[in-house]
């Protein structure tokens, strides 16, 4: 694999381009096991390998990829990248500028594993899922149960003409359960530890065992049934307390995507739109209340967005994004950082595979904890609603106006959690919503969640990213009950 990287770089150097890098990903591997109503629905072990070569002239980039890992194919791929860069440069007047970065030489990164998930027999995984799924059927009204497990491996070799070189092996896992209860036309779903497949982490199979899916399952099933009898969430402007898992998705959609610098600068709009944020606002824009502090941290242990170096060879790092409600940073590449006048890249360029050109992507974008316990967050709330576990979401292509539906809500009455309410929906506009956040939960309410399917670009690329979030309280939020 290292020879293939050197082969690509040698072609680029011989052609006299200003810069080139090459990535070999072999293997990229996905395991997916799914059990529904006692039967295995998915038993997937998919593998791929690819090579990507990116070159830069004085004025433009060129990229080409191949899934054929041979010296001849790699040489041809490098030549195509060079031709594309030179062709693109003919229509560009300004010179292309990037930040100067230190180079990692022979760097090594590997996910710490107590038990490699790819060494665990499939029969053992299916047995675990079947046991958890069976306990979802806690009442006769649970008509469908599902338990799922996923694991990913990406082994990569990287090198550049600036002398950067590293290898990495990143392994991520996740699992979860969900129950669907039905009575007539009333259908309610409950998931655990959260929706969309459950809880994900960069770790080994030991993380799956720690989720204790079987213990969670009966609670999930009973709550799905209880929602059938719950009243609809009340409608009106009220105090909203968001659970950690829901707040993580809120951060993803209305902060993470909005602070990707390529979207801010208008060079990327594919799949998820641009941003309401202007680059001139970095350092001054009021994004939220004083209680809002956000970082992008590619060094966080266990995060799906954790790595040693990005796909430009820039080290993973912790970057302040919002401090006391003010936007102070953004997710950046070497090019977008230089355009903004920054000395260094934020190290967030990542690709969805060796045969895809890297884009600015989220790492672990975290809302930092505050100093309130859950009891303190509820104290002083005369009437409100607590919601958790996402069911649906919608946000405009500026990442500004949004609406989220959740699986479950609970009324808050005089500082205490009360009865269940079904189908809660809340809506708002980013800066107004974040400015209404008047209290943030402490470390005991904070959890690092994983999003394994973040899409961006055309053709779409899928990235795995992380979000740490506490429980938090928001005042005067528009809430209603769905159908």
Measured between the Cα atoms of the first and last residue, the distance is: 55 Å
| Helix and strand composition category | alpha+beta
Largest sheet: 8 strands, mixed
Uncertain ranges: none
Rounded Rg: 24 Å
**How much of the polypeptide forms β-strand, as a percent range?**
35-45%
Number of DSSP strands? 23
Shape from CA axes?
globular
Number of helices: 10
Total domains = 2
Average of pLDDT: 97
Helix content: 10-25%
3D structure, described in words:
This protein is an alpha+beta fold and 483 residues long. The protein has helices at 2-15, 71-89, 122-136, 205-211, 213-229, 244-256, 261-265, 334-340, 374-378, 430-435; strands at 19-36, 39-56, 61-66, 107-110, 142-160, 165-183, 186-192, 199-201, 236-242, 294-297, 318-323, 326-327, 349-350, 359-360, 365-367, 383-395, 401-413, 416-422, 424-429, 437-440, 447-456, 461-469, 472-481. The longest helix has 19 residues, at 71-89. Helix content is 22%, strand content 40%.
Topology:
Blueprint: H1 2-15, E1 19-36, E2 39-56, E3 61-66, H2 71-89, E4 107-110, H3 122-136, E5 142-160, E6 165-183, E7 186-192, E8 199-201, H4 205-211, H5 213-229, E9 236-242, H6 244-256, H7 261-265, E10 294-297, E11 318-323, E12 326-327, H8 334-340, E13 349-350, E14 359-360, E15 365-367, H9 374-378, E16 383-395, E17 401-413, E18 416-422, E19 424-429, H10 430-435, E20 437-440, E21 447-456, E22 461-469, E23 472-481
Parallel strand pairs: 4-6, 9-16
Antiparallel strand pairs: 1-2, 1-5, 2-3, 5-6, 6-7, 6-8, 9-23, 10-11, 10-15, 11-12, 13-14, 16-17, 17-18, 17-19, 19-23, 20-23, 21-22
Helix pairs in contact: 1-2, 3-5
């Amino acid at each position: 694999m290292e020879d293939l990287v050197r082969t690509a770089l040698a072609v680029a150097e011989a052609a006299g381009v200003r810069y080139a890098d090459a990535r070999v990903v072999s293997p990229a591997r996905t395991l997916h096991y799914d059990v529904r109503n006692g039967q295995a629905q998915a038993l997937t072990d998919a593998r791929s390998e690819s090579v990507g070569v990116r070159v830069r002239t004085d004025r433009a980039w060129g990229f080409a990829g191949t899934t054929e890992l041979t010296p001849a194919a790699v040489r041809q791929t490098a030549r195509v990248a060079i031709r594309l860069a030179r062709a693109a440069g003919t229509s560009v007047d300004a010179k292309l500028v990037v930040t100067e970065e230190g180079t990692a030489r022979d760097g090594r990164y590997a996910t710490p594993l107590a038990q490699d998930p790819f060494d665990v027999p499939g029969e053992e995984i299916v047995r675990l899922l079947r046991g958890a799924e069976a306990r979802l059927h806690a009442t006769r009204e649970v008509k469908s149960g599902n338990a799922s497990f996923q694991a990913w491996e990406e082994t990569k070799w990287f090198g550049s003409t600036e002398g950067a070189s590293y290898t990495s092996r990143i392994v991520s896992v996740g699992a979860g359960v969900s129950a669907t209860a039905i009575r007539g036309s009333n259908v309610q779903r409950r998931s655990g530890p959260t929706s969309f497949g459950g809880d994900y982490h960069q770790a080994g199979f030991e993380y799956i065992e720690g989720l204790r899916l079987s213990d969670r399952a009966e609670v999930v099933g009973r709550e799905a049934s209880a929602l059938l009898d719950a009243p609809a969430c009340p409608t009106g402007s009220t105090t909203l307390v968001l659970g950690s898992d829901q707040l993580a998705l809120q951060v993803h959609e209305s902060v993470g995507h909005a602070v990707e610098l390529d979207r801010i600068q208008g060079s990327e709009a594919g799949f998820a739109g641009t941003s309401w944020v202007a680059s001139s606002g970095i350092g001054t824009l009021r994004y939220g209340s004083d209680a809002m502090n956000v970082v992008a941290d590619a060094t966080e242990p266990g995060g799906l967005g954790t790595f040693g170096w990005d796909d430009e060879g820039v080290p993973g790092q912790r970057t302040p994004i919002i401090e006391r409600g003010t936007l102070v940073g953004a997710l950046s590449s070497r090019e977008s950082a230089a355009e903004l006048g920054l000395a260094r890249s934020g190290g967030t360029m990542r690709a969805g595979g060796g045969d895809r050109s890297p884009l600015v992507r989220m790492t672990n974008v975290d809302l930092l904890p505050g100093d309130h316990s859950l009891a303190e967050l509820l104290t002083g709330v005369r009437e409100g609603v607590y919601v958790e576990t996402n069911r649906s979401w919608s946000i405009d292509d500026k990442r500004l106006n949004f609406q989220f539906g959740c699986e479950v809500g609970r009324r808050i009455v005089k500082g205490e959690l009360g009865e269940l309410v079904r189908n809660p929906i809340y809506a708002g506009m980013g800066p107004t919503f974040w400015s209404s956040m008047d209290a943030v939960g402490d470390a005991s309410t904070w959890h690092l969640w994983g999003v394994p399917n973040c899409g961006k670009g055309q053709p779409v690329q899928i990235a795995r990213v992380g979000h740490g979030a506490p429980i938090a309280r928001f005042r005067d939020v528009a809430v209603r009950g769905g159908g």
